[in-house]
Amino acid sequence: MIYKRSSELFNEAQQVIPGGVNSPVRAFKAVGGDPIFVEKAKGAYLYDVDGNTFIDYINSWGPMILGHAHNPVVKAVSEAAENGTSFGMPTEIETKIAALAVSMVPNIDKIRFVNSGTEACMSAVRLARGYTGKDKIIKFAGCYHGHSDSFLIQAGSGAVTFGTPNSPGVTKGTAKDTLLATYNDIDSVRKLIAEHTNEIACIIIEPVAGNMGCIPPSESFLQDLRQECDKNNILLIFDEVMTGFRLAKGGAQELYDVACDIVTFGKVIGGGLPVGAFAARDEFMKMLAPEGPVYQAGTLSGNPLAMAAGYAMLSELNSKPELFTSLAEKTAYLHEGIAKQLEQNNVVHTINRVGSMISVHFSETPVTNFETAAQGNNETFKAFFHGMLKEGIYIAPSAFETWFITEALSYKDLDRTIAACGKIAATLH
Ligand code: PMP
């Protein structure tokens, strides 16, 4: 494959955009090489500026659950654009999508729309702090909740400890209020709660982690978290930016039958337009401005194009619940096919999968938390990534990312992917 035009565009971009990209992972830093510039996408395929075609396993990092340029979404956006692109005033479509989302997701009465997953999580934490009157939060090492200051925290001296900023610009003052626990380790959470009695406002978690590869919650982990929160007057926030409207109509809450107090959304909920949302029972949501004292706002929140896209997307998912089963079946087929190819070629691996989220780790040990995810062989991953790319298969350019399966993928596409995997696996030693 030739990436001449992409490389030229990347050089130009670097002159005027930091690192040439508007979000770091796009720069291919983890795998090396220049990123691919997209010309267009349709269904399961990406077309780049050099005329190459790829089967897409990223799907804009999740939103494209029904494939790129999905006709009902494109139609809804085009029609909405004819009537104006933003008003900063209420519109009927906002109520329609809110009512639909509330009907699909368990344990919520009201939903507030924002412009990104970052905003959703940041606002959810503010609401939890406002409601409980407490300052500290618990997050899990390896979970990502966007780039707001409170989440850009890494473990300090011990694995479970006070956080320290992991980006310049995040103050020590902010870092002291974020406590880090270990994913799938309830004792690490209990320890923090015991050390900080009556100080913790909320626990925020990806109920299925998607930002250290795909990591399922171990049995009873989410239920145990629920119990700890109930016992200690702590709110449980499920960050369902990836899992919401993807694992089931009602997301991970439905799949695992565990209720959270506040749930955040992004990705699928906007049909590919910049949308995030957070939702909860009225008891919590009534704390929000203008009804209550917790401030939260946005000039473009509830934007008519974004709401039209999201409404078209959610309507389709709501009317075809069999889609979730079909997606899970496709993902299981891919899982089996890839595992077989890697086994036949003696490539050490672990594959994690929940519903339509899947990740391949070049690691022998089960991948259950950040530490075990980090043990994967990154050199093997790099070779695998570039090999697959040459075969026209676009997977995430980092070993810490999840692949997102779209309904637009055919079994023929999956077979092509599995065959490519076999070819590359034979070279991975
Ligand atoms: N939460 C999770 C679980 C995410 O995966 C992401 C983005 N990958 C975010 C929050 C942040 O969303 P955004 O990039 O839209 O700000």
UniProtKB/TrEMBL annotation:
Keyword entries, A-Z: Aminotransferase, Cytoplasm, Isomerase, Porphyrin biosynthesis, Pyridoxal phosphate, Transferase
BP GO annotations: protoporphyrinogen IX biosynthetic process
CDD domains hit by this protein: OAT_like (cd00610)
GO function term, MF aspect, one: pyridoxal phosphate binding
Cellular compartments annotated: Cytoplasm
HAMAP family, per the entry: HemL_aminotrans_3 (MF_00375)
Biochemical pathway: Porphyrin-containing compound metabolism; protoporphyrin-IX biosynthesis; 5-aminolevulinate from L-glutamyl-tRNA(Glu): step 2/2
Organism of this sequence: Cochleicola gelatinilyticus
Enzyme Commission number, as recorded: 5.4.3.8
Catalytic reaction(s) noted: (S)-4-amino-5-oxopentanoate = 5-aminolevulinate
Protein name (record): Glutamate-1-semialdehyde 2,1-aminomutase
Membership in a protein family: Belongs to the class-III pyridoxal-phosphate-dependent aminotransferase family. HemL subfamily.
Broad enzyme group: isomerase
Pfam families the record matches: Aminotran_3
Needed co-factor(s): pyridoxal 5'-phosphate
Record has DNA-binding as a keyword: no
Subunit structure as annotated in this protein's UniProt entry: Homodimer.
SUPFAM superfamilies membership: PLP-dependent transferases
InterPro entries attached to this UniProt entry: 4pyrrol_synth_GluAld_NH2Trfase, Aminotrans_3, Aminotrans_3_PPA_site, PyrdxlP-dep_Trfase, PyrdxlP-dep_Trfase_major, PyrdxlP-dep_Trfase_small
One GO cellular component term noted in the UniProt record for this chain: cytoplasm
N6-(pyridoxal phosphate)lysine modified-residue sites: K267
